Amino acid sequence: MGIRRSNSTQPDEGANGTGGLGPGAGPMGPRAKVQPKPGGGKGLMAGLRRSWIRRRPARPVPRLPQYSGAPGWRAVNRTAAVLLIAAFCFVYGFAYSLFAPALLPLFTLPLALLGLLVVWALPDNHHPPVRPLEWLFFAFFASLALWPDYLAVSLPGLPWITMLRLTGFPMAFTLLLCASTSKDFRRELGRAIAAAPVFVFLVGGFVLIQLASIALSADKGFSIQKFIIAQTNWTAVFFIALYLFRKPGRLQNWAVTLWAMAIVVSLLAVWEFRLGHVPWAGHIPSFLKIEDPSVAKTLAGQMRAYTNRYRAQATFGTSLGLAEYLAFAMPFILELIFGRQPQWLRVAAAASLPLLLLAVVLTNARLGLIGCLMSFFLYGLVFALRRWRYNKSSLLGPAVALGYPALCCAAMGATLLIPRLHVMILGGGAQKASTTARFEQYSLGIPKILHNPFGYGIGMAAQTLDYHPFGQLTIDTYYISIALEYGVLGFIWYYGMVALAIFTASEKALRLSPDGGKDEQFLAPLAIALINFLVIKSVFSQQDNHPIVYMMMGAVVALSSRLAPVGKRAPAAKASPAPAIAAESPAGLR
Prior knowledge:
Layout: H1 41-55, H2 71-99, H3 104-107, H4 109-120, H5 130-146, H6 163-181, H7 183-195, H8 197-213, H9 220-244, H10 250-275, H11 293-300, E1 302-304, E2 309-311, H12 319-338, H13 343-363, H14 366-390, H15 396-402, H16 404-417, H17 419-425, H18 432-451, H19 461-465, H20 478-511, H21 523-536, H22 546-562
Antiparallel strand pairs: 1-2
Helix pairs in contact: 5-6, 5-10, 6-9, 7-22, 8-9, 8-20, 9-22, 10-12, 10-13, 12-13, 12-14, 12-21, 14-15, 14-21, 16-17, 18-20, 20-21, 20-22, 21-22
């Protein structure tokens, strides 16, 4: 007896993975109806739900749209693409044979653009390399102060391969990788940017000013190198700090690292002062030696003119760079001493303070002493104002705050009347030459700025000023450097950005309650260190410590995103009456 086939028009359920057979279906006929389970509506609804799930049509598999052109045009397009790539490679190789190694950095631009395109096209990743980004950030920070920048590998036609670049370029690439492949990373970064959109707009606008200044440069290859280094050491560092310092405890770790590195370089400065030269002079491996007059001058040491007094510089290129670093670190060390820190950390920071002050004195740099004195005065003023604001019963806060004008007048009088203090801060006959040189640079630079108010290109300040009193090209004030490189607009934009960071950090530090977070307590040191930066840059033009400045500005924006504005609490939600649920209405049971 043969098997009778059903002529039923029921849809075939083999496509749903059941092979046409399911619960209640026999092998000889159509599928039986689903019987409700005993127990009321619950079994009936469950059975209907299972039946709906089985009968729901499967979603089509997503496919990429196919090219609908004619087969002949496909071959033409493919051939044209191959010919264009071959022509580009021919021109690229011919130009490389003519201009390398003189213009070798320019030939890396197509490879860099191709790498950026590949990073942009990467798919989203739920586990971005955030931890490697943090490690590279702190490695970059450590190499900034602990490794001399003139100990590097020098290859023909390439910039110096320094420790700062070995950590900075992977750090910037990891930042691009996280931003391209992680939606959570972009969301977190966007929250931080939303807290201070004007400041981030200023940072991005300054990048555009730097890029536009390349067109005005007389040496565009050199300016391109400076632009790439600036985006790696400044802009990328700012956005990484903006992301990392939103996490609790990261800023405190950064401040402790800054203090620990200050102790190391201070010990090296004392050792160097006793030797009369840097300790590693004469012990540098051959692959790290750079045959350059500036490096030879740095290894030989620096002496103050007319005094024959050695000036310690430790791992920095000049004694002024070491003094600037210690002036930046001093406000954070004061916070570690007087802030809400563990007892052992406060004692250790207080014990290290004499060593750091000794290192500042050994640099024989007036800017270091001025920065340290400003740190003490401003930190005491912030402490008094906050105590006056939040502890009305204490007389210490108002007494110190109201007595600060008299204290400042006494300090200025002591500076003018005590000869040794006058020489250390304002300078004497031995420092007259450097003071005169700075006035000469202002007299040379201002007419050139007025002649071309749009600037002469990034990295071209010293060449434009053309000041070489001792046979070596030099420029001593960063105010003239910024105006010569980026013009009047760049000068206002750059220092307006720093001034906005100072205002934001100061305002939030004064409004911060005493029981605020430990990271937020560093808002006052951030403002004081940035004030030191503005003062020091009037007499010092080198950019050794500028990544620290961008880290501090990123920390200000990150802490601003973590603090709610005082006095502007979110309005309480109005209590709305609960909707009445009608027991007899089926809609009320939803």
